[in-house]
Structure formats: C-alpha cells, structure tokens
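Notes from the 1:1 (GR / supervisor)

We went over the backlog. Supervisor wanted to see one worked example end to end before approving the batch request, so GR pasted a single chain during the call. The sequence is below; no edits were made to it. Supervisor asked that the structure be written out right there so they could see what the output format looks like.
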Amino acid sequence: MRIGIVGCGLIGQKRAASAHEHDIVGVSDLDAACAESLANRYGATVYPQWRDLLGAGLDAVVVCTTHESLSPIALEAVKTGLHVLVEKPAGRNSAEVAAVMEAAQTAGRIVQVGFNHRFHPALLKAKELVDSGEVGPLMSIRARYGHGGRLGMEKEWRCQPEISGGGELVDQAPHLIDLSRWFLGDLALDYGHAPTLFWEMPADDNCFLALKSPAGQMAWLHASWTEWKNIFSFEIFGRVGKLHIEGLGGSYGTERLTLYKMLPEMGPPETTILEYPFPDTSWEREFADFSNAISGKVGSVGGTISDSYEVLKIVDRIYGRKVT
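Structure output shown during the call:
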C-alpha cells in the first residue's frame, strides 16, 4: 500500500517502522524538522499541509497527532476515499468519533483505532485461552494501569482538556475499557469518578470505573497518573481459572501471563507462567492486522472506530457530557 503519516513524533515513528512492508510516500507534521527527519528515513515527501498529503495518491493514512486533530483528519481522509489507522481515542469525545464512524460506513472504508494493547503477546494468548474455555465462563475483570508523571507534566497537552478532551480518563483508561470490552463484550457504566488528586491542572489525574455487562459481569478499573511506579495489571476471572497479565516491557516490567487453573478440590491452583521479553512486537502485529482488514481477510482483532465510539460514550458519561 501507499501510506501517508500525519504526526511524526514518537508514535508516528513507531507506526512508520511497523509499516516497513509498505511504501511510505509522504509525511506531515507541524514540526517541520520532525517531518523532515522521518521523511529522510523512508525516502518520503514532506507535505507542510496534511490536506495536501491526503491528495497524494495514497491507499491509507496513519494519524498520530494530538487528540484535537485526530477526528478532523480521519474524517477528511475517509471522505477522500482512504483507509485510516488513527491513534486512540480517535477523538476528544463520542460526537467527534461518531462523525468519523458514520462517514466510514457511508464510504465503505476501514477505520481502525490504535488500541495496540490488544496485540501484546500476553493479551493475545489470554484471548486465545478465554475463547478456548480454558478458564470457563468469565465473571469479572480487575485492572490497573498507570505511571507517576514527570516534572512539568501539568503543562503538557495531555493535561489541557481543550486539546486532549480530558485527563487520565482519555489517556490510559481507554486501553483498559477497550480490553474489558474485548473480553466481556458490551459494557455499560455502573460507576465512574475522575478526580484530580495530585497535579495542579484542569484535568483528572486518576479515574475509577465500574463497568457492567448485560449478564452482570463486572470490570473494575483504575487508571492513574499518581502510580509513582509504572504498572500494568489486567486480571481475568473465570469460573474455573484466572489469567493475570502484567507488565508491558520497559519501565512497566517484563510482560508476563500467569494462568491459575482451579483444581477439583480447589485450594492452591495449578500455575503456569509465560514470559514475553522485549522487543515489543505489538506495533507490527497491529499494522499487519490493519492491512489484512483492508484486504478483506477474516479474523481481524484490531480495534474499530465503533469500538472507540463505545469507549468514549463511557468516558463522556463520567465527565457528564452529552452522549451522541
């Protein structure tokens, strides 16, 4: 495919590296030096205006900008006839994402959202085990995700709601909500609270969520910018076993999946531990899945624009915003 990339920062660079089997023909970024650096790496053309890039004969575009630009660029790309891979949460609220979703349906274009945690090997293996019935029917999920911030973080764009759409609730929490929906199916908000407990800023630095499925299954989630020691912990409880995914590599620790299998007599479970050390292959897996979805191959597991819409409906309800 002929690929364009809008947003050439850290995530744009990772997306470009994951698309190495395709032709990166053009890039665009408000930071000209950043765009030039990425373009030189792949022999691509720099387009100072992203709209000009969309008209450069592309098959698909990858959108890796700050949140306020995600949906406008994705929407214009779909209307231009392009397939889109857009970073999560794909917009600042459900209304912005709904516009992209409707346009994609009308145009018959694939729009996937960068919920790349689905493609971490421990989570892929967990999904395989759940789908095979290894832990029995699911009852609940308990998850934590967070870091401790950094000096001056309260001045960054992620902490400015007019740009980001919120705080931690639209930063790391969408991954937890998406993963919970991936395992449990549709979930509705039962309880949600997004306070600012430490950082002096107009955005939340913690969020606590209780989500409930139509069958009564629960997901209890906590995302935090006051974790101090980076953590990713995702526990899946079934009637005959439990899965615990922890670590994402790097500062989050070695990625690990532990299967606790209940014995007939109960008591201490049979325990199996699988470890997945670096390098992180989730980006390559996700782009391959995006390419396969465009090709019409069955079995795609990537997050869709509809998934993002459902996630942001929950976010909007916690923030007390109108849900489109």
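Supervisor's comment: The chain has a mean pLDDT of 97.
Batch request approved.
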